[in-house]
Amino acid sequence: MILLDYLVKWWSRAKRQSKFRPANSSIGQDVELHCSHVQKHLVMGAHVQLTEGEYTGQTGTIVAFEEEQQHSQRPRAIVLTDMTHKQVVMDLSQLRECHEIFSRDSLQGYQLYDFVYLDGPGKEVGVIVHVGFEEVSIINQHGLVRLVEPEEIRGKRRVTPQRFTARDARGNILRAGASVTVQEGLHKEMTAMIKHINGSVLFLSSPTRSENAGIIVARSRICVLAGNKPNASSPPASATTNNRQGFIRPRRRGKQQKDGLSMKPVRIQAGPHKGMIGAVRHVTPTHVEVELDCQSKRIQVARNRVSVLTASEISGPKNGPVDAGSIPRASTPPLNPQDVADWLHFK
Hints:
- The chain has helices spanning 311-315, 337-343; strands spanning 6-12, 17-22, 31-34, 47-50, 59-65, 76-81, 87-91, 95-97, 106-107, 110-111, 115-118, 125-131, 136-140, 145-148, 153-156, 165-167, 173-175, 179-182, 191-198, 201-205, 215-219, 223-225, 265-268, 277-283, 287-292, 298-302, 306-308.
- It is mainly beta and 347 residues long.
- The chain folds into 5 domains: 6-37, no CATH class; 47-97, SH3 type barrels (Roll), CATH 2.30.30; 106-156, SH3 type barrels; 161-228 and 235-245, Roll (SH3 type barrels); 265-343, Roll (SH3 type barrels), CATH 2.30.30.30.
- The longest helix is centred in the last third of the chain and has 7 residues, at 337-343.
């Protein structure tokens, strides 16, 4: 039974005994052997994880066996690691087969999917797609992947990704977390979620891709918000500016509808300017800006603290002038009622 391949069926730690089933069922029945009479069997090209030593936890591929050790009692394999691309020599007892690729959680404060700024004159940015023991892999705004050391990274974005926006091919606003469909290029018809936005460049995350941790790069103008139909009323992409700052400035569309208080003469009902009159120059949902008649200045007043002057309050008693004492003013002579109306733009 020397050099035959068996599969472990049962093993007793106390008795140091194992029961094996032949890999080729035509060879014979199950056998029980002492653990010292068997050794682990791995083939060239197997993907393994290192279980002991300096590189514990790392994964790699067996690229060769030491010739003089291949049939010895303690065979040794040469493993090319996935992260550092170094060749290390390990005993077969220190290896186990696996399918996943090992990745660290962080390296000097940088984690997977962090948006980072790189040193250099080109204002290069990117997203971390793999964290190694000494370096990280970054996919930049051009879709190129490169290995960099933490010392080459200027810093990472520390604000929430949702603050940054872009416009798709139909003028829809895009933010991190939204799903888009790529309409052109290498990733045409792929639907992915926006991970980060940098100007008009989208870093998308696709669960169907294993390469580069699922991150792909596409321009916003070749993407469309998933599930959104063309809408003639959607503003074009040129309607927004300064996307780098994370806010949208809509295009002004003609004359806005006037508020009921706009340009009306009012009396202030409360506060330090109580009793004074003026004209409303600007209106918001909660406040009005009043230009005081007596002081020639503008103040902000809550809407519920002003009342619109009636025609009788402006013109005064019939066939009589306005009672100047009833309206707090600076020391000025009484005005003609018509002059007051003209001054306050009363209609």
